[in-house]
Amino acid sequence: MTPRETTVFMKGIVKVYPDGTQALKGVDFEASKGEIHALLGENGAGKTTLMRILYGEIKPTKGEIYVFGEKATFKSPRDALRTGIAMVYQQFSLIPSLTVAENIYLAASSVKRVSLEDVKARTEELSKNLGWKVPFEYTVENLPVGLRQRIEILKALLVGSKVLILDEPTSVLTPLEVEELFKVLGNLRDEGMTIILITHKIREAKKISDRVTVLRRGLKAGTFNTLEISETNLARLMVGEEVELAIRGGASKPGTPALVVEKLKVKDDMGVLRVKEATLTVRYGEIVGIAGVQGNGQRELVEAIAGLRPALEGRILVDGVDATKLTVSERRKLGLSYIPESKLVGLALEMNIVENSIMTSLLQFTRRLLEVDWGKARSGAGDIVREFGVVHRSLDDPVKSLSGGNQQKLMVGREVNKKPKILVAHEPTQGLDIATAIMVRRRLLDLRDKGSAVFLVSSDLEELLSLSDRLLVIYDGRIVSEGAPRDYALEKLGLLMGGVIEAGQE
Length: 506
Ligand SMILES: Nc1ncnc2c1ncn2[C@@H]1O[C@H](COP(=O)(O)OP(=O)(O)O)[C@@H](O)[C@H]1O
Ligand SMILES: [Mg+2]
Fold this sequence. Notes:
Rossmann fold; alpha/beta; 3 domains; binds adenosine-5'-diphosphate; 6-stranded mixed β-sheet; binds magnesium ion
């Protein structure tokens, strides 16, 4: 093997933000020519901060940076671009009101003098090599995110970047788009580029990278050849403790129907028909999962089931009772519990932890009408924050003082601890650290084993595959497939979700 040619070397990087946050506590990082280097870590580990420093956008508090063997002191991203380093952000830096051509030209001309014609010609050549079509005359605001990302990558290549940093690039893509992106990144790597891919997804790092550096709470937990480290060990390094990645319940014992949806049609806020015809059944003692690319009607479906959105046509039965026209609280009385996708729906941010912890089950806490048993409520709230690890100062603090992840834990813990007969869970683990996410998944399995019905809507395919007893796929407002999780390879699931194939056609 030829020795690695180091392109980027960062040494002893410390970053303390003006508000006192110690984002990086002395990190070394090295990347070389012709590799895809994954920078892996949980939310808040310091990944973006480290790369913004390399890109010259923020200054390190301490530490040194060498690029192509020379000490670098970038004053701005423009200096970094001139040296050959480009970064594609989670939030793209395109100007929405300009066309694609104008955006690319603007980026190229900020680095050196070029003509618009020249930029167009070279972009066309570059995109042809990558197998991409570039809609030069389109205004950026009309483009889907997948395309915007490609424009960002083209911008970087056009200015001759040798090091390309991508910050969580797959979070906005469908599984098919992810495949395409990875193929292009692989080609660029083979041509000698250094690609640094920021991600919090272990499987993604494992799949695409040659080496992986793990960050944990502002410190480097290690750098490895990707082939030589297992997913379990990567997870352990990320969270700093032993975690078990694969959890799977035993066989389910489905009972009578708990939640039945018949030929349901639902409109969104704009009056567009989003659920075009959905029919499904969730029985007691089973978890039914639903997979789909965001925006295919799952939100409207779930909101109609919960009672937050009217059904245009069709029926919803909760525990055998026609609930189609019932209010949210009438459905709750029938045993339906709901974890919404948005904390703004699920929590009252100005109210305190105790108040929030009883919001959805006032009946259980009142002795007489509207007389709350605060002692009982307080001890219940205490159970939730303890079991779900909600980091807080006092139970009397308003929920808005909690971080997003801790709000999520409170919202999930409240519904799970009620031991609901029927639980509709929409993205229950989003924003949670790995250890808590696994704990939540266990609790969902536990509910199932004790006889509850769980309807799980999640964009985390691994989560769906490991928890569901039956899996549905929704596409364009219709359930297009139903089966046991073992019947779905990830690839097939991606094709169904993207509407590329229909059930029974493989
Ligand atoms: N501009 C900022 N000011 C203050 N703190 C910040 C800023 N940006 C990030 N942080 C904090 O620094 C830590 C690392 O954040 P970040 O680099 O974004 O992590 P990651 O990309 O791994 O999720 C977090 O605690 C985050 O809240
Ligand atoms: Mg980040």
